[in-house]
């Protein structure tokens, strides 16, 4: 099976550098998919979810929430420069409620231990 060489880079770190079989990116108009042998392309990215499938046994799919960025595809080499949404930066109501319950449970456990 053909593979892409994928590099995902943020200002803070290299998020991923390795082989992938598919990359799905949040484009300005709509999400789009990059597969091996895709035509060369440069595109800006919107806020959304970037997903990629790691090449190899099991082909694990990984997702990253991004604020935006840009990407380039040329000769099966995909470079994605993104601003990653940090944990808690955009928390859903369900996530906020779950976090609150966990904190309350921790406080109760601490009181029991005293």
What would you say this structure looks like, in words?
This protein is α+β, with helices and mostly antiparallel strands and about 110 residues long. The chain has a single domain (about 5-90), classed as ATP Synthase, domain 1 (Sandwich). It is about 20% helix and about 50% strand. The protein has one helix at about 95-114; strands spanning about 5-10, 15-25, 30-35, 40-45, 50-55, 60-75, 75-85. The protein has a 5-stranded mixed β-barrel.
What order do the helices and strands come in, and which of them pair?
Layout: E1 4-9, E2 14-26, E3 31-34, E4 41-45, E5 48-54, E6 61-74, E7 77-84, H1 93-113
Parallel strand pairs: 1-7
Antiparallel strand pairs: 1-2, 2-3, 2-5, 4-6, 5-6, 6-7
Features:
114 residues, alpha+beta, ATP Synthase, domain 1, 7 strands, elongated
Summarize the structure.
By secondary structure, this protein is an alpha+beta fold. The protein has one helix at residues 93-113, and strands spanning 4-9, 14-26, 31-34, 41-45, 48-54, 61-74, 77-84. A five-stranded mixed barrel has the order 1-2-5-6-7.
**Arithmetic mean of pLDDT:** 86
Q: What class, by secondary structure content?
A: alpha+beta
* Second CATH tier, the architecture: Sandwich
Tally of strands: 7
CATH superfamily: F0F1 ATP synthase delta/epsilon subunit, N-terminal
Distance between the termini: 59 Å
């Amino acid at each position: 099976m053909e593979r892409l060489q994928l590099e995902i880079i943020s200002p803070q770190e290299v998020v991923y550098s390795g082989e992938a079989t598919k990359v799905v990116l949040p484009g300005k108009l709509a999400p789009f998919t990059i597969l091996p042998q895709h035509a060369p392309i440069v595109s800006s990215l919107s806020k959304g979810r970037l997903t990629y499938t790691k090449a190899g046994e099991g082909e694990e799919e990984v997702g990253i929430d991004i604020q935006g960025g840009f990407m380039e595809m040329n000769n099966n080499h995909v470079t994605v420069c993104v601003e990653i949404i940090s944990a808690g930066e955009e928390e859903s109501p369900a996530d906020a409620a779950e976090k609150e319950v966990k904190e309350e449970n921790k406080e109760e456990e601490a009181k029991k231990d005293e």
